[in-house]
Amino acid sequence: xxxxxxxxxxVALAAFALMPVTAWAEDVPPTPMPPTSMPVxxxxxxxxxxxxxxxxxYRAPVMYERQGICPPVQMVNTGPVCCIARNASGWPVTPGxxxxxxxxxxxxxxxxxxxxxxxxMGEAPYLAGPTANPDPIDWGVLDYDDGQAxxxxxxxxxxxxxxxxxxxxxxxxxxxxxxxxxxxxxxxPGPAGVGGVTVPNTADLRVESExxxxxxxxxxxxxxxxxASWSVGGGAHWVQFNEGVTASxxxxxxxxxxxxxxxxxxxxxxxxxxxxxxxxxxEITPCFDVTLLLKGMLGNMNRQLTVSDNSVFSGGYHGATxxxxxxxxxxxxxxxxxxxxxxxxxxxxxxxLLFVDNVLRAHDGMDFTxxxxxxxxxxxxxxQLVVHSVLxxxxxxx
Length: 398
What we know:
The protein is mainly β. The chain has one helix at 2-27, and strands at residues 63-64, 73-74, 103-114, 148-160, 163-183, 186-187, 196-197, 201-225, 228-248, 262-285, 288-310, 317-340, 345-360, 366-367, 377-378, 382-397.
């Protein structure tokens, strides 16, 4: 009995001694276990922009970093042997992958040369001998040898990598010359019906001419071989050629008139045509190219002529007009070089030839074969408009 009571007391004392230890263990937070792995922070560095590289016309396709707004692109060729740099979408780029803009504004100054009037005043009499004209008055003394300044302004916008619209306005210059010329001019039919000539006289001859025009075209690139790209296009072309000639200040009035005589002819040639053409551009280097452009034109030529005189075949003022229309052809040739200074700025130089057939020159528009009508009459006599121009300009690309 005493032995059982003693065992119970020992168990109670042990339980009492262990209670604080258990409570304390529950109050103390557990010691954190070290993690099996630590998270790693990864920072990706943005690629540094690479400036456009030195010109290299031939290279294998390779990844380039464009500057500015464009992401990296794959440089590709548009054909198996085309070496002109394009991006993956076909847009032209610099050797370093920099984008060229779609909008091009091109301003050029030009110095132009126009063919001056040629030919004799009046008509040749039917018969030689006493009625022949030994000293004819020559319109050829007038000249445009010095040329005239003008300008050309072009706006071009690429609607696709291989297609663009182009609008152009050109002013070829305002030409004039005055010369004093002595001699005589013939006329028909004359008093005997075989023609006649005036008495020797002196007059001031003057010519004034002006040429300008505009065009709107759509172009598309059709081939690219090596460093050359070929394009074709078409559109509309307008050419305006106005000219006037005057013979005045005659030294001697024509008998039997006392009034100082004069004669004048003024013509407006308006040409509106459809045109089609082709061009080839050679990329000598990525910064220097040469372009040959040839356009053929076919359209309507409207000629409006006004002829007037005073006291030549009869006394007083006389005037008459004439208008004709005709389908005629023309040619526009352009050779230009371009030197790119930057991606958006370039200098240009070139040569242009404008040829339009069957225009009317003012001095050819006076008909001296109807003197019995008492006046100089208008006549439609075809000639040619030929303008040569040299150009120097600046091109901005956005």
